[in-house]
Amino acid sequence: MPGQEQPSGGPGARRRQARGERRAAQLLDAAAVVFARSGYAGAGTNAIAREAGVSPGTLYQFFANKEAIAIKLGDRLLEQWRTSYGQALSSAHLGLPLAGLLDAVVDPLLDFNARNPAFHVLVHGADSPGHVTDAFEHFHGVVLGRIEEILALHLPGAARAEVTRVATTVLALFTAGLDLIAAHPGEQDVYRAELKKVLLRYLEPVLGARPPARAGRARRPGA
């Protein structure tokens, strides 16, 4: 219509772009399966192409090599992880008793890792591309800061160094629990329960079972 900005390209160009985006997403989905099955070092572009049901030539139209695929997949998974983290560490959960708070925080994060085993492979693998591990390490610091905010509400009189020490320990326990769960795919529910038991028994003497008195003043995740 006159006076309105028209979309760039015609309908054919938009359809080709949409097909290209679907194909790229299909290749990333296939890469996630192959990385989870074989690890990053053991995966190859031919295996990814087979998993996607396309030729290697088609794959190379979208990604130059395996590293480029891993970087794009890592970015996608990290963005999804940020969403899961934001929901898990929401201020809405801070009024819960400690056991309920652990359920509300831990379960969504473990569910994400169970749905996306390639995430664990890419962010914890020693041979993963540096871009992926560097991005995760940056976000690891953001998560640590958010845990410190939550703990500070439970420990209003504690020194900052104590809050940081407890937060660092909690995050280390959680990360170790992820490794255990990943190593026992047939017993994930059992190790999930063990992880929450460990976190509860560590935190309960430090924080007590009662919710914090100032939960309503917590900042939003990422604030």
TrEMBL record:
Residues 21-81 form the HTH tetR-type domain. Residues 44-63 bind DNA. This is DNA-binding transcriptional regulator, AcrR family. Keywords: DNA-binding, Transcription, Transcription regulation. The keyword Transcription regulation applies. Coiled coil: none annotated. One of its GO terms (molecular function) is DNA-binding transcription factor activity. The keyword Cytoplasm does not apply. Residues 1-21 are annotated as: Disordered. PROSITE patterns: HTH_TETR_2 (PS50977). InterPro entries: Homeodomain-like_sf (IPR009057), HTH-type_TetR-like_transc_reg (IPR050109), HTH_TetR (IPR001647), TetR_C_15 (IPR041669).
